[in-house]
Amino acid sequence: MQVRASLLLIACTALPTALTAQATTATTAAPAASANPVSDALRQMEQRFARILVAAAEAMPADKYTYRPTPAQMSFAQIQVHLANEGNDLLCGKVAGVTAPARATAADSTLGKDALVARLKETFTFCEQAFAKLDDSKLNTPIQLFGPRPFSMAAAMFITVGDWADHYSQEANYLRLNGILPPTAQPRTGM
Asked: What is the CATH number of the domain that holds 89?
């Protein structure tokens, strides 16, 4: 009996608070609905991953760009090359239906940190520009990414974001293995 009375007391105490919170939420203005929620989300993810992938590339010391945890894994420099060439130039171009600009120098792992970071920034600028005019009207359009099987534009968007997430995770681990806190693990300031 005491357990039921305690539960009833808790419910009676919590219910008015919950109802007040619900009423407050209901009266708060909801953000305007987007006409292109998928394309808008892709643009937001591009901004986020551009920021954290470039920050990770900048955080790794130049003398650690040849670092790889095991011989079977890419070096940190090779990750930057992959992100720039196969990641951003290829995927962003395919998703947006545009060709990446011709680069004066192709990124390769023998370039130094400064050149690789500059190239990464350049390719994220290309992605941002390429995605600027995307809308959700063509999400089902087939896109030839790799191999004979086409992907829908929506799937290509997911693959692009997944590639960024995969390589950020990889870079975060490389940074931690070298005693460096990754950008997303840094304490936030200015909040």
From this structure: 1.20.120.450
